[in-house]
Amino acid sequence: MKKILIISDTHSYLDPRLEPHLQACDQIWHAGDWGSVQLADQLIAYKKPIAGVYGNIDDRTIRNMYPKIMRFRCEEVNIAMTHIAGAPSSYKPDAYEAFSKGIPQIFVCGHSHILQVKRDIKRNNMLFINPGAAGQHGFHPIQTAIQLKIDGSRIFDVEIIQMERNRKVPKEMLEEGN
Questions:
Q1: C-beta neighbour count of 64 within 10 angstroms
Q2: Whether the Cβ atoms of residue 141 and residue 165 lie closer than 8 Å to each other
Q3: What is the DSSP string of 106-139?
Q4: Phi/psi of residue 46, each to 5°?
Q5: Rg of the chain (C-alpha set)
Q6: CB neighbours (10 Å) of residue 21?
Q7: Is the per-residue pLDDT at 178 higher than 50?
Q8: Could you read off the pLDDT of 37-73 as tens digits, one per residue?
Q9: pLDDT at 137
Q10: CA atoms within 13 A on the CB side of 68
Q11: Are the C-beta atoms of 49 and 28 separated by less than 8 Å?
């Protein structure tokens, strides 16, 4: 069994309130807009497997570390991930590219800063997950992340992590690329 923490749109800010979730998880999945190599290094320091993709704000260094589209397995579950994917009602080209090698059981994306967890019945009941935005930059009033468990082919205990937006973060932490 694996316990997964799914985050996106950190924009260079790793909220300290995620610490217990980072400690407790077995794997970290990041759906893009890391914001900085320093943020990636903070996550790498947890010494847990990281699956991630780059986002539209990420620089060349992050793009060299993580692909645009990633397909992988966790236990017996096929996962696909990309940053800009749209939603089940209107997928974007990167989503279709991710689906080109088969419909995954879990599809993870970011970009919109809007939390969504739903089944796409038109695509083999695929579990669509956009964890919203775990960082500070953007319009979202609540910072969010997702945790779930996978045991064999079973996906369960899907939980939303919600954090009131901390407006006291130093301005330099909120700027793009920092």
A1: 11
A2: yes
A3: EEE--SS--EEEEEETTTTTEEEEEE---SSSSS
A4: -75, -10
A5: 15
A6: 19
A7: no
A8: 999 999 999 999 999 999 999 999 999 999 999 999 9
A9: 86
A10: 10
A11: yes
Confidence of residue 177 (pLDDT cuts 50, 70, 90): very low
Which residue type sits at 138? G
DSSP string covering the chain: -EEEEEE---TT---GGGHHHHHH-SEEEE-S----HHHHHHHHTT-S-EEE---TT--HHHHHHS-SEEEEEETTEEEEEES--EETTEE-HHHHHHHTT---SEEE--SS--EEEEEETTTTTEEEEEE---SSSSS-SEEEEEEEEEETTEEEEEEEEEEE--TTS-HHHHSTT-
Whole-angstrom Cα distance, residue 160 to residue 163?
Answer: 10
127's CB contacts (< 8 A; 6+ apart) are 105, 106, 107, 117, 118, 119, 120, 155
